[in-house]
Description:
Layout: E1 3-8, H1 15-28, E2 33-39, H2 53-63, E3 67-71, H3 73-76, H4 80-93, E4 99-104, H5 110-121, H6 125-136, H7 141-153, H8 156-159, H9 165-179, E5 185-189, H10 198-210, H11 216-224, H12 230-242, H13 249-256, H14 265-269, H15 278-288, H16 301-309, H17 316-328, E6 344-350, H18 351-363, E7 368-369, H19 381-400, E8 414-416
Parallel strand pairs: 1-2, 1-4, 2-3, 4-5, 6-7, 6-8
Antiparallel strand pairs: 3-6
Amino acid sequence: MDTCGLIAEYNPFHIGHQSQLQMIRDHFGKKSGVVVCMSGPFCQRGVPALLDKGVRTELALKMGADLVLELPHIYAASTAEQFAEGAVKTLLATGVVRNLAYGTENPDAHEGIKQLASLLADESEALGQLIRDKVAQGMGFAAAREEAVKDFTHDAHQSRLLADSNTILAVEYEKALLRSDPIPTLALPLVEKEKTSATLIRDRVQDAFVSKERNALWTLMNELNPSLPPASVASVMDALSQGKGFLTEEMIAPSLFLAPVFFDREQLLSIKDMRGGLGERLFNAIRHDPANIMADDSTRPYDAFVRRVATRAHPASRVRRAILAAAMGIKVDDPAYMKGPGYIRVLGFTRQGKRLLSYMRHEARLPIVMNASDFRGLDDESARRQAELDLQAQALWNEHAGQRQKGEFERVVRTIR
């Protein structure tokens, strides 16, 4: 059986994701296996997933995935490089994934993406110094790397590949493969990207949730129909109509700032992503006016606060990740970073996925976790810490999504026949 891995967040699951799964089927054949490594309760930009991971898992299985695995939180809410490394290593550890597919704004530049990944995976001292120099000049890391590659290679076309968000992740996936176990990759085009901005969709859901307009939900449903498959629209609307089972960053943000670490400068500076002056900026912003840091008349005061704190060197996504890491107590030297992923958490599977799972039980290079109770059997310190953070992140999500009564130890693996 030919198998293809895919890394995703499905936040939310839109028509671009549906097309991507279909393209993989078209390329590898209907009998191939598709294994998705998906973020759990929080995503790479430091925002909460709109819907529960169980709901997103079921949508993925209905739309063409065979087996859905959870990316540990320590990687899911991290930099593009760490996100890619954690996801790629998780897929490779299954022992059954033979190919990797990813979406990119530049599918025709597949070879260029791989060449760029090779350049960055084996970064020379000269290129590294160019990047550091540009960061020292006040540029954010992504912009500094793009400019440094341009100066180093004298190839503006190649460096421009680092200007697009999905292609940046594609480069990181290829880098992670080069450093682990190279397997063939498939570069897929992004379908109707202008209709499927996950950020805009989440913003629209937030606006509808706080709206006092009588027909706000009806209007939202009509607006989502062109962008999301019917089952995905139904999942969003079901959660909104119940008033629980969904979460936006504006809903959770006030509680994040309650963590005592925000009022202890030394402790805050020890938190992941707080280096380079960001810790001081947040400490001063919160210490001087803790009651009104989100005082804003808009429907997204947290977003406004993040953008006030963000700079060229500290983009909004890094600010969000740093705040989340502080609220969860994740430090730079956290034991969760001692090794790579410590287990393979299974969220759901189809009949085809069940066959893959049976192969995995013989081929996997990491413990397979079917239920949260399996975490108790982990004997590695780093893996146990990763599991602890996974449980903490899910409990935090549940609390603010109105699912306090739903413990992670009661979660069952989703199955689709």
